[in-house]
Amino acid sequence: MRGTSRASLQAVENRFAPDVRTAGGQARRIGEELFALVDALDGSGSLRRTLADPSLDAAPKSGLVARLLDGADPRTVAIAQALVSSRWSADADLAHATERLAFVALLSSADEDSSLAQVEEELFSLTRALAGQREVRRYLLDPAYPAQARGELVDRLLGTQGSVVTRAVARRAAVAPRGRRYVTTLQHVGDVIAELRSREVATVVSASPLTPAQTARLTDLLGRALGRAVQVNVVVDPGVVGGLRVQAGPDVIDSTVLSRLADARRQLAG
Asked: How far is the C-alpha of 206 from the C-alpha of 256, rounded, in Å?
């Protein structure tokens, strides 16, 4: 998102965060209702353009979104009305912002019952499990497969494992990929969890498992470099040959042998 959209999202999130946190178990309902609005926005370009149009008065847009969400929790309606009354750099940013707040609401329900750390670990475990499953990852992204079938595949992958919120997030990522790879969505949700827990998540790809001492040392180094607490998630991928690839938010530090070989090939080709 560009500056205007980022500012609008932050303003709405700051305004309604206390309401969502105090919603308790109802926060999950708010999240699901906001996801329904995301689906409506993604499914209708004319609706999205109308609700994001800065030249239209806020009142009729607020009335329209209230009718769309008829029967929804009043807090959901208030959040949606604040979103459509804000300014967006692009039409698509309205849907992106709504999705972000939907995930925040869903995760807040886990924060309320102190299971947010469990959700974080379960989503990361699912990410690791999919690392070597290329065909499964392709299936979860391919729009040729019905959304319901993708959701059922996630249900089978999880089996009886996972909290209610973990299962809801994992299923949502499959049913509505919104053009993203499945694992990318899970990583995005992991970043949201880290923000809710006031931590940065750093994903480290290594050719072999790191020892506890190595992980602790890396966590300390990254924490000092980023200036805040860091949660290090290690993904083992023998394909990188050697070295480490570290990603924290938009920042990537790649020192793998594979990366160095790719750089050498590019230099030779040049």
From this structure: 8
- Helix/strand/coil for 160: coil
Structure confidence at residue 244 (pLDDT): 81
Yes or no: say if 93 and 5 are a contact pair by the CB < 8 Å rule. yes
The pLDDT of residue 195 is 81
96 — pLDDT class (breaks 50, 70, 90): very high
- The secondary structure of 123-191, three-state, reads HHHHHHHCCCCHHHHHHHHCCCCCHHHHHHHHHHHHCCCCCHHHHHHHHHHHHCCCCCCHHHHHHHHHH
Count Cβ atoms within 10 A of the Cβ of residue 101 and give its class: 0-12 exposed, 13-18 middle, 19 or more buried. Answer: buried
Stretch 13-37: mean pLDDT, rounded?
A: 90
For 185, counting Cβ atoms within 10 Å of its Cβ (0-12 exposed, 13-18 middle, 19+ buried), the class is: buried
| DSSP letter assigned to residue 209 | P
Query: How is residue 102 written in tokens?
Result: 């939907």
Give the type of residue at 19: D
Q: Say if CB 166 and CB 122 are below 8 A apart.
A: yes
- Minimum mean pLDDT among 101-105, 115-119, 146-150, 253-257: which range? 253-257
- Amino acid (one-letter) located at 75: R
Around 136, how many Cα atoms within 13 Å sit in the side-chain half-sphere?
16
- pTM score above 0.85: no
Structure token digits, residue 185: 């969505």
Residue 88, Cβ neighbours under 10 Å: how many? 24
Name the DSSP letter for residue 240: G
Terminus-to-terminus CA distance in the chain, angstroms?
34
Amino acid type, 211: T
Q: What type of residue is 173?
A: A
Radius of gyration over every alpha carbon of the chain, rounded to an integer in angstroms: 20
Give the residue from 176, 167, 235 showing the smallest Cα distance to 201: 235
